[in-house]
Design brief:
By secondary structure, this protein is of the alpha/beta class. The chain has 3 domains: about 230 residues, Aldehyde Dehydrogenase, Chain A, domain 1 (3-Layer(aba) Sandwich); about 190 residues, Aldehyde Dehydrogenase, Chain A, domain 2 (3-Layer(aba) Sandwich); about 45 residues. The strands form 4 sheets. The protein has a 7-stranded mixed β-sheet, sandwiched between helices. The N and C termini lie far apart (about 75 Å).
Amino acid sequence: MEYEETPAIQAADMMERAKSAFWGWSALSVRERVSYIKNLREAVVEDIDAIAELIAKDVGKVRTDALVADIMPSLDAMLHVEKHAEKTLRSQKVKTPFLLMGKKSMVEYMPMGTVLVISPWNYPFLLSLSPMLSALAAGNTVILKPSEVTPAVGILIESLFEKAKFPPNVVQVAHGGKELGASLTNAKPDYIFFTGSVATGKIIQQAAARDLIPTTLELGGKDPMIVLQDADLKRAAEGAAWGAFTNSGQVCMSVERLIIEEMVMEPFLEELLPLVNQLKQGSGADDDIGSMTSRMQIDIVKQQVEDALEKGAVLLAGEHPSKWDLDSMFIKPLILSQVTEDMMIMQEETFGPVLPIISAEDEEDAVRIANGTRYGLNASVWSRDKEKARRISSRLQSGAVLINDVLITVANNNLPFGGVKDSGIGRYHGENGIRMFCHEKAVMEDLGYKKSEIQWYPYKEKYESFRNLLVANFGKSRSFNDVLKEYLKLIRMTKSKS
């Protein structure tokens, strides 16, 4: 698609405009800010079919996927912010220790300033809007740098914020590639929220560290699905097919490693293979799987599949890479068996319609294989024994785990979302998803009961009483009576010297 790029040289000016707009936006009440998000939600619903069509065309996914996985969770995120932002951002009263009696203690949530959101191409609508909504509700201004791979969605988002009548420069959209992203990062935003590859995330983190800019990094995954011998194999097979191939596998939380207890490998494949072979691929309303989005990503998938086949993997479904029509961007879903843990397909993020299957001797072996990569974003455990599934899930090094389902933790805005290990830094969604874009400000207020404080000058003759107070309060034989006695003594000493 032809579109007008934002010159990288404009990054500093955009940041200056955003920081100027911050003062007016942050001065609005939370309720006033949320009213603009309500306008945005209504604007999306009003044009929902056209938006689904545009997303599907720009990404290459089917319309149902655009509707269910991009638009629906975005609308739910808007509604979540509308319902919860005011309470979440309200000052929170906290306890004050006895030794600081006469004070009231509060935590206030102060917006950061200007947030830079850099979003990816696989879910360009959802993964742009979700952090933006929380940042805006918290009182920040936002600059969005959407992926240059899906420029039409970036233009759409810009038009929707205009339609929702957000004040000038509260939301700005910068259209362009890596050079623009680097310029915006170097323009010193107050917070950076990045979704994308591990390699780019590390570059952004290094740049942010120079200016002590806080970041959230939502990075890649190599998510395992563990199928135990007592699992409902039919349900597990259906979950694996959708979890691996929705959006042509271009999902950071897609099932990228299928780990099956060896004694149920054959009956599981008997359920899975017919399902996969019946999937419809195309761009129509009734199709199941669309195309790949990026030619560069196809090359990565091709390299990993060829490496696996050369090392002995067996192709159970799909076509050999030598038969792929690369110009069409469509790749039939592939299933690989006889894979080994040292293959690229089992260690590196694939981000394509490929499902490698490996057998595990037992539960212990399954957990070992699942934890055996540098990633830790999502995982799933399949078993009829919920207690066993929970026990195994607690041992998985992952930011999220599902039991007898796949992917959908990200759709629950009450749950934190994020990864461990190389899958990222930080969490969003839930209360934290709004508060993460705020500085926590500690506020302590004197209630006016005392004219002076026991710890104030002069210190003359106070040491012994302070020492006795600390021993009584923190020592082995704690005594509230002795604490009170020494405290009152210190008050009398303070009064006599004032």
